Amino acid sequence: NDVDSGKTSWKSPSNIALVKYWGKREHQIPANPSISFTLDVCATTTSVSYTKLGEGASDFSFDFRFGGRPKDEFKPKIRTFFARVEKYLPFLRQYHLLIESSNSFPHSSGIASSASSMSALALCLMDLEKQLDPSIDDGFFIKKASFLARLGSGSACRSVQGPIVEWGDHDEMAHSSNLYGVPFSGEVHSVFKNYQDTVLLVDKGEKQVSSTVGHGLMKDHPFALRRFEQAHHNLGRLKSIFAEGDLDGFMAVVESEALTLHAMMMTSMPYFILMRPNTLEIVNRIWDFRRATGLNVCFTLDAGANVHVLYPEHEKAQIERFIKDELAVFCQNGQYIQDSVGLGAQRL
Ligand code: PMV
Fold first, then answer.
1. Ligand 1 atom closest to Cα of 261?
2. 3-state secondary structure of 182
3. Domains along the chain?
4. Residue of the nearest CA to atom 10 in ligand 1?
5. Which residues form the Mvd1 C-terminal domain (predicted)?
6. Would you write out the chain's pLDDT as a tens digit for each of its 348 residues?
7. DSSP conformational letter for 163
8. Contacts for 14 with CB less than 8 Å, ≥ 6 apart
9. Which atom of ligand 1 is nearest to the CA of 155?
């Protein structure tokens, strides 16, 4: 098939890990399996306009615009991504690509956008591949999009689908793969349906340590092997927790995973701390509130200072009021984002 030009657009959500991916091997292969909730509101919309070049170019030919403006600072990251995926998308140098992206969440809010943006871009590139080879079926399309997204940013492979996605080889989950994310296939109790995630924006500053560096520090980490075993164990526990609707078990695994992620950062060499004083204020207030009310609210953390507050939909009213009245003061400019578990990326 010959395709001269066209345009494709995808909206891809972010995701929040429940069992964390921290540490990787060559080619973006995770050192341990992970599982996440796909989000709904926090998302990146990307469109790719492609035009066939006269001859294959010697370098990748593309422009990048973010929020309507050229954003050349992002181009090296995209070029690195193209270099990694070219083997799997051999037509890449034959097209000029105009990539236009925007995020639903405030710019530089400290919300990692690499998962949603790499997932959206990978899906757009798969659309171009499908134009060239219409025999590609939907199952292959989605798997390969996740495979490509992983090469952009590991956790991005969990953003293509929803609502719960696992990634990484694991004994109890035979279909799970190191190469791409797959929807969790186990039973999920109704209490976990439409789970809520309020993202508290504690610190909007640039991260002092990138996740690439953080993953790298797991290589010689004194606790790495025990940590990787623990992730396997926690994934196994979550499987029965989801089936049984065990909220206490869920909160224990999820909070322990968040604190372990940060404990790995604090015990690597060099060591670093991404939590801020307000992160700990919020954690303590969540614990006090949970003890006082018996409501099922817990937290998790990404590689940053922001706090994700997780709770079941049926407790939404009381917990939203608590967040507004007691936690918002610890956020930068009182900002937080009301999100919930979503179904994955959508073609626009
Ligand atoms: O996808 P990366 O390389 O930015 O790594 C992200 C790692 C964490 O967000 C900290 C955990 C996870 O599993 O998403």
1. 10
2. strand
3. 5-186 (3.30.230.10), 193-340 (3.30.70.890)
4. 303
5. 199-328
6. 678 999 999 999 999 999 999 999 999 999 999 999 999 999 999 999 999 997 767 889 999 999 999 999 999 999 999 999 999 999 999 999 999 999 998 766 667 789 999 999 999 999 999 999 999 999 999 999 999 999 999 999 999 999 999 999 987 767 889 999 999 999 999 999 999 999 999 987 767 788 999 999 999 999 999 999 999 999 999 999 999 999 999 999 999 999 999 999 999 999 999 999 999 999 999 999 999 999 999 999 999 999 999 999 999 999 999 999 999 999 999 999 999 999 999 999
7. S
8. 39, 42, 43, 44, 111, 112, 113, 115, 116, 159
9. 1
Residues in contact with ligand 1 by the CB-under-6-Å rule are 17, 20-22, 34, 114, 153-155, 211, 215, 261, 302-303
**Ligand 1 centre and the CA of 318: distance in Å?**
30
Span from the CA of 244 to the centroid of ligand 1 (angstroms): 27
Q: How far apart are CA 216 and CA 265, in angstroms?
A: 11
Dihedral sign computed on CA atoms, order 163, 167, 171, 174: positive
- Rounded CA-CA distance 344/256 in Å is 26
Ligand 1, residue 16: give the atom nearest the CA. 14
State residue 163 phi and psi, 5-degree precision: -85, -25
Q: Which two tokens stand for residue 104?
A: 């639903």
**Tokens, residue 219:** 């290589």
Q: Which atom of ligand 1 is nearest to the CA of 158?
A: 14
CA of 21 to the centre of ligand 1 (A): 6
- Indicate the top mutation candidate among 18, 22, 27 to test ligand 1's pocket, ranked by most ligand atoms within 8 A of CB: 22
Distance 345 CA to ligand 1 centre (A): 18
ipTM: 0.99
Ligand 1 centre and the CA of 272: distance in Å? 16
